[in-house]
Amino acid sequence: MSKPPFLALPSGVRAYRMATARGEFAVHDTADADHSGRTVLLLPGFTGSKEDFIGLLEPLARAGFRAVAVDGRGQYETGGPREAAAYTQSELARDVLAVVAVLGRGEPGAVHLLGHSLGGLLARAAVLRDAAPFASLTLLSSGPAAVAAGQQERVRMLLGALGTMSMAAIWEVMQELDQSVGSAGEAPYSRREAAETSAVLAEFLRRRWLANVPAQLAATGEQLLTEPDRVGELAALGLPFHVVSGAADDAWPVPLLDGMAERLGARRSVIAGTGHSPNAERPAETARALADFWLSPSPR
C-alpha cells in the first residue's frame, strides 16, 4: 500500500464529500486555486485512498490545475455497501464517470484522468465506457493486464484471509510480515518530528485499513488477478496517454510498462529513485512530470 509523505492538508486544499448522481464521495480538492479551467481527477490504488496523492496537490495547484483526489466506493472515508456486486469494475467505472460529470459539468474533454495501480485499471474502464469527458489518461504504476505473479500470490493470500479473519487481525499479520511498504516521503523532519510523524502515519494506515469495506477489497483484488489486456481497445480511442512509473515496480515490471506505452503511443515518464508509488515517494518530481504532460500543446 502507498504511504503518504504527510497527512496535514496543504494550504488551499479542502476535504469534503462530493455529491454525485451515484452518491457522495470523499475528496481532497484544490478548487480554490487559480486553475484556468484545467481539472485533474486522481484515483487511488488497491488498499489506498485520496491521501496517497496529498503530496501532489500543492504543486499541481501551483502549476494551474484543480486537482481532485477521491476515495472510491468502499475505500476509506467514502464507504459503501457490504455486497460484492457493488464493486464490479463496471460499477466502479460508472462511479468515476459520475464524479467526472460533476467536475466537468458535462463538457467534453474537460478532465484529465489519472489512475494509480488498481486505479489505473478503473480509469481505463471508465474511459472505455465513455471517452468524451476526458482530455487525457495517465496510467501511474498501472499495467496492461493482471498483476505480476509475485503480486498475485500476495493478493490471493489477502483474499483468503478476508474470508476467515477480521480486518483487525489481518492488519496485525500484515504488520508482522511487513506488508505495509512505502516511503517516508520528502518532508524534512527532525529526529523527534520524524518519530512523531511515524506514529501518526502508522495510526492513519491502520485506521484507513479498518475503514475499507471487505467486499470492495475482495472484488477489486479479484480484478487485479483476472484483468485482461485491453491496451488495443484503449489505443483505438486516440486520447493523449501518459505512462508513469518508478524505476522499479513489483506489481507490473517496468519493461512491461515500457511496452504498454509503445502500444499506446504514450508519453513515458520514469521517476528516478521510486518504486510502485512515485506519487508518495517523490511527489514533487512526479507532479512536474504530470504537469509537463498536461500543459504540453502536443501531449504525446
From TrEMBL:
GO terms for cellular component: membrane. Residues 40-289 form the AB hydrolase-1 domain. SUPFAM superfamilies: alpha/beta-Hydrolases. Transmembrane segments: none annotated. It comes from the Bacteria. GO terms for molecular function: catalytic activity. This is Pimeloyl-ACP methyl ester carboxylesterase.
